[in-house]
């Protein structure tokens, strides 16, 4: 059975897509771009997977309901969705490109052991950009931040490996090392 396109070609409501951030993506495609059933299916697969998914994971998700959905169509759809600004292509260190709904600029911290992803607050990036402008007379045009390190869980349990990248819980700890 073929998956039907989302009626308005917009992201699913927060409660249906499981996005804990509550952020909403914009239009699925930029005005003037063709809205095809295939692009809609790829977009909705990213929604269902919760982001940070690879083209292979998107293809596997689509094959659950459309076993003959071509991998080449996934790549062409991802290219169109990325070009339209609807989907963000994240290069998270080694390995394949990961895709997520574009909800503004994306900056990441990635655990090199489990592959967990933490979104870096835009305020920190803005502060860095202001520092570059004010102190170095350097005007940022485009900023991408990727920090590679080890998450709290992996630092406690070495050797942990996740089958799929996941979003790390965004917890702020006080600077005293107590973790509260």
Order of helices and strands: HHHHEEEEHEH
Name the overall outline. flat
Helix content: 25-40%
Say what the CATH topology of the largest domain is: Arc Repressor Mutant, subunit A
Round the mean pLDDT to the nearest integer and report it.
74
- End-to-end CA span: 50 Å
The tally of strands reads 5
Biggest β-sheet: strands ordered side by side in the sheet: 4-3-5
The main sheet comes to: 3 strands, mixed
CATH top level assignment of the largest domain: Mainly Alpha
Put simply, the count of helices is: 6
Number of domains: 2
Strand content: 5-15%
Which superfamily, in CATH terms, is the homologous superfamily of the largest domain? Winged helix-like DNA-binding domain superfamily/Winged helix DNA-binding domain
Q: Could you say what the CATH architecture of the largest domain is?
A: Orthogonal Bundle
Radius of gyration: 18 Å
Q: Could you name the ranges where pLDDT drops below 50 across 5 or more consecutive residues?
A: 1-27
The secondary structure category is alpha+beta
Which key terms come to mind for this protein?
alpha+beta, Arc Repressor Mutant, subunit A, Dna Ligase, domain 1, 3-stranded mixed beta sheet, two-stranded antiparallel ribbon, 5 strands
Q: How would you describe the overall organization of this protein?
A:
It is a single chain. By secondary structure, the chain is of the alpha+beta class. It has 2 domains: 14-101, Arc Repressor Mutant, subunit A (Orthogonal Bundle), CATH 1.10.10; 108-156, Dna Ligase, domain 1 (2-Layer Sandwich), CATH 3.30.1490.190. The chain has helices at 14-17, 37-49, 55-63, 71-83, 122-136, 152-156, and strands at 87-90, 98-101, 108-111, 117-119, 146-149. The strands form 2 sheets. A 3-stranded mixed β-sheet has the order 4-3-5, with no helix packed on it. Strands 1-2 form a two-stranded antiparallel ribbon. It is flat. Mean pLDDT is 74; it is low at 1-27.
């Amino acid at each position: 059975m073929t998956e039907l396109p989302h009626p308005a070609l917009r992201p699913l409501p927060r409660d249906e897509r499981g996005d804990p951030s509550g952020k909403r993506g914009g239009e699925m495609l930029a005005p003037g771009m063709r809205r095809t059933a295939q692009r809609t299916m790829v977009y909705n697969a990213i929604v269902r997977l919760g982001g940070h998914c690879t083209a292979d994971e998107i293809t596997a998700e689509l094959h659950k309901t459309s076993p003959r959905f071509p991998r080449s169509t996934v790549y062409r759809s991802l290219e169109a969705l990325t070009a339209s600004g609807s989907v963000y292509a994240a290069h998270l260190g080694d390995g394949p490109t990961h895709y997520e709904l574009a909800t503004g600029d994306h900056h990441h911290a990635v655990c090199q052991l489990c592959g967990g992803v933490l979104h870096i607050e835009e305020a920190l990036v803005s502060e860095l950009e202001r520092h570059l402008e004010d102190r170095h007379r350097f005007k940022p045009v485009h900023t991408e931040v990727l920090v590679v390190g080890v998450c709290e869980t992996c630092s406690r349990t070495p050797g942990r490996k996740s089958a799929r990248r996941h979003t790390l819980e965004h917890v702020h700890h006080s600077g005293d090392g107590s973790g509260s």
